[in-house]
């Protein structure tokens, strides 16, 4: 919305427009108007608002050409609209200043001036100022910097709930820890804390904390009946705990503590808490403050959170912690979100240590060098349960303390409503995979990113009901390295064995021999469905399947089943593809004889199979899809999959289907052929 006073100045002289008093040729500089007792920091509140004297002069110089029109516009604005404008400006300036200085406090005069710059708008005219002064809630956002402005705001706010944000002046190097700046801010904070009974939101961010300097301030603040949000940043949490433990905060709903949690925060916990945050602060050098050095002892309080019956969200920073995570940590049933930042080595321990309710969402971020880098993921349908475990680390893999770099990153999501289970991967150089699963059941949706899973993969996935997944997307996987060492492949097969309800399998960019090993777990033909993976599989979609055609060190083709048993060293090279249709047909027939018949087979972008006898795949399959785009010169972007349907009258029809197997409108140049 365009504010009416934006057209007052035709020459763009904003400073002249917002000036409280008419500008003269010899106006005093802004820096000269400084309280004598606080020479380091000027009072940021306009001088006219520090007193109750009415404005007697025109607050700004109006251009004569537009003055009548502007005056009429200003006078016609209703009081309710003006109050909305004032509230928006006050809240916006307070929030921006608070967030900016929370990340990097700046106490230069240029940064302090905008703190209460919105106040100048209320002094545009007598009517505007009268309306603003009558609204106590408008002056309830206080940043204690200088005593005069703080006292004036406390007076104007009357009995309105307060939002207070205090930032230690020593946080900015340019101030050099000025004694005057610290004294002025501490004095202003002391006056503010005398009104603790009506403070609703309190932020205290200390650069250094000395009990002897601030204990007197906190001694008067013992009852905070309206306090609902408390934010504490300090390098020594024990001092804050000592001073705040006796505060009466019956309605405290949010508590955030940033610093070295070398002492328990149990004294600050209240039964009314809904949101608890424990994370690290930063020292003057910019590095991590080494918080949570005694986390093992401090985390013991997590084992007894039963009294926090209203706790909904918990955030814990474990990024600088090198100890072990206590086991058996049980959270109250009310917990809905658990957000943990920790080192990779603790991911599995964290999962096993936390005992959660069925409706809790977990976010475990193992990122150490990037503060909040997670995979964005939404499960299909509404999310009642979600587990996100993300870890993207910048260190070389050799720096990880895990055997074979077993867990580079893990991202698990449990959600509600979907029916997909996906496994993606990259090249053998990265050896990374994403596991993504969801189910029609309300408690299954899993996404996993890991490296060379080994036993950690099974440990992480064991608590979750993967067997309910109905759609499995697999690939790209490489038999010669994509799955890592053969010992780790066995763990993937163990996971596949759990998926008993999969009816659709989509594989892309996968070695055909590995696919055969997945479809038929043993070399001999099984006699019952107990030996067949995915016993309910009816639809098989193959995309970009690949074959080994040999290299500089060829070896005779060996069965993929031998590779599954760990008999190969990962350097296997296949030198022939003539036996692929027969092997694949034998696999499908074996599944059909065991009662696990594949009724639909769709093949896309498999140009190296186009010269083979497609009839070899017919046995055991009712419907076959075939992408021969390279031979019939169909533009790749215009086609997804060709589906060849074999009806009972032996007529072969060609039509297109999308990646989900749904039929789409046939292309005009595809013709019907008879067989």
Task: Please explain how this structure is put together.
This protein is α/β, with parallel strands linked by helices. It is built from 18 helices and 24 strands. Strand 4 (229-233), helix 10 and strand 5 form a beta-alpha-beta unit. The longest helix has 25 residues, at 79-103.
Main attributes of the structure:
12-stranded mixed beta sheet; disordered N terminus; 675 residues; single chain; disordered C terminus; alpha/beta; 18 helices
Strand content: 15-25%
Cα radius of gyration in angstroms: 34 Å
What characterizes the major β-sheet? 12 strands, mixed
- Residue share in helix: 10-25%
Distance between the termini: 71 Å
| Arithmetic mean of pLDDT | 56
Low-pLDDT windows of residues: 1-41, 54-66, 102-114, 282-294, 366-457, 478-488, 523-530, 548-578, 607-620, 622-675
Structural class: alpha/beta
User: Strand tally, please?
Assistant: 24
SS element count, helices: 18
General form: elongated
Pfam family, one: F-box-like
Protein name: F-box domain-containing protein
Domain F-box: 74-142
Outline:
This protein is α/β, with parallel strands linked by helices and about 675 residues long. The N terminus and C terminus are likely disordered.
Secondary-structure map with pairings?
Elements: H1 14-18, H2 67-76, H3 79-103, H4 109-112, H5 119-122, H6 126-134, E1 141-142, H7 147-157, E2 162-167, H8 179-193, E3 199-205, H9 211-219, E4 229-233, H10 237-244, E5 254-258, E6 275-279, H11 295-298, E7 313-318, E8 329-330, E9 337-342, H12 347-353, E10 354-355, E11 361-365, E12 386-390, E13 420-425, E14 432-438, E15 445-451, H13 454-461, E16 471-474, H14 486-498, E17 504-508, H15 512-519, E18 539-543, H16 560-564, H17 580-593, E19 600-604, E20 623-626, H18 629-632, E21 641-645, E22 651-657, E23 663-664, E24 673-674
Parallel strand pairs: 1-2, 2-3, 3-4, 4-5, 5-6, 6-7, 7-9, 8-10, 9-11, 11-12, 13-16, 16-17, 17-18, 18-19, 19-20
Antiparallel strand pairs: 13-14, 14-15, 20-21, 21-22, 22-23, 22-24
């Amino acid at each position: 919305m365009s504010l009416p006073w934006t057209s007052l100045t035709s020459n763009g002289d904003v400073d002249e427009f917002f000036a409280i008093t008419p500008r003269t040729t010899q106006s005093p500089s802004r820096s000269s108007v400084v309280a004598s007792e606080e020479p380091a920091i000027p009072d940021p509140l306009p001088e006219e608002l520090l007193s109750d004297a009415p404005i007697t002069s025109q607050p700004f110089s109006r251009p004569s050409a537009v003055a009548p029109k502007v005056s009429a516009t200003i006078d016609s604005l209703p009081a309710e609209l003006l109050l909305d404008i004032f509230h928006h400006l006050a809240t916006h300036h307070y929030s921006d200043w608070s967030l900016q200085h929370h990340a990097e406090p700046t106490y230069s005069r240029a940064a302090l001036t905008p703190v209460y710059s919105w106040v100048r708008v209320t002094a545009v005219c007598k009517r505007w100022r009268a309306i603003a002064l009558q609204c106590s809630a408008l002056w309830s956002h206080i940043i204690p910097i200088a005593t005069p402005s703080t006292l004036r705001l406390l007076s104007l706010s009357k009995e309105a709930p307060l939002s207070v944000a205090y930032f230690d002046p020593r946080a900015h190097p340019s101030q050099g820890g000025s004694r005057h700046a610290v004294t002025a801010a501490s004095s202003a904070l002391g006056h503010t804390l005398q009104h603790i009974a009506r403070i609703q939101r309190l932020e205290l961010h200390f650069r250094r904390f000395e009990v002897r300097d601030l204990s007197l301030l906190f001694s008067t603040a013992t009852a905070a009946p309206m306090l609902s949000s408390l934010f504490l940043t300090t390098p020594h949490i024990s001092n804050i705990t000592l001073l705040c433990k006796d505060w009466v905060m019956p309605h405290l709903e949010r508590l955030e503590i940033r610093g070295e949690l070398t002492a328990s925060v149990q004294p600050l916990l209240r039964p009314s808490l809904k949101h608890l945050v424990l994370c690290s602060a930063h020292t003057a050098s910019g590095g991590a403050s080494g918080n949570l050095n005694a986390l093992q002892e401090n985390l013991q309080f997590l084992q007894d959170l039963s009294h926090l019956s209203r706790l909904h969200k918990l955030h814990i920073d474990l990024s600088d912690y090198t100890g072990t995570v206590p086991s058996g940590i049980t959270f109250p049933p009310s917990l809905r979100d658990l957000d943990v930042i920790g080192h990779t080595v603790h991911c599995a321990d964290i999962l096993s240590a936390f005992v959660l309710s069925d409706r809790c969402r977990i976010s475990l971020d193992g990122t150490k060098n990037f503060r909040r880098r997670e995979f964005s993921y939404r499960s299909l349908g509404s999310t009642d349960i979600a587990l996100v475990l993300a870890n993207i680390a910048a260190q070389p893999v050799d720096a990880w303390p895990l055997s074979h770099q077993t867990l580079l990153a893990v991202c698990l999501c449990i959600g509600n409503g979907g029916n997909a289970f996906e496994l993606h991967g990259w090249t053998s150089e990265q050896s990374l995979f994403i596991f993504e699963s969801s189910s029609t059941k309300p408690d299954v949706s899993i996404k996993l990113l890991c490296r060379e899973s080994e036993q950690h993969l099974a440990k992480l996935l064991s608590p979750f009901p993967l067997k309910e997944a109905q759609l499995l997307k697999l690939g790209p996987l490489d038999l010669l390295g994509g799955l890592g060492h053969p010992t780790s492949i066995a763990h993937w097969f163990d996971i596949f064995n759990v998926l008993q309800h999969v009816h659709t399998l989509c594989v892309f960019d996968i070695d055909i021999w590995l696919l055969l090993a997945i479809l038929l777990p043993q070399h001999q033909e099984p006699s019952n469905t107990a030996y067949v993976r995915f016993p309910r599989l009816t639809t098989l979609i193959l995309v970009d399947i690949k074959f080994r055609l040999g290299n500089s060190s060829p070896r005779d083709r060996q069965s993929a089943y031998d590779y599954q048993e760990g008999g190969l060293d990962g350097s296997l090279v296949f030198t022939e593809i003539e036996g692929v249709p027969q092997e694949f047909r034998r696999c499908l027939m074996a599944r059909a004889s065991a009662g696990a018949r594949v009724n639909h087979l769709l093949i896309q972008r498999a140009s190296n199979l186009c010269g083979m006898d497609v009839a070899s795949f017919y046995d055991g399959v009712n419907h076959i899809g075939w992408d021969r785009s390279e031979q019939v010169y169909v533009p790749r972007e215009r086609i997804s999959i060709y589906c060849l349907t074999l009806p009972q009258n032996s007529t072969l029809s060609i039509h297109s289907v999308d990646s989900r197997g749904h039929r789409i409108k046939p292309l005009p140049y595809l013709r019907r052929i008879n067989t």
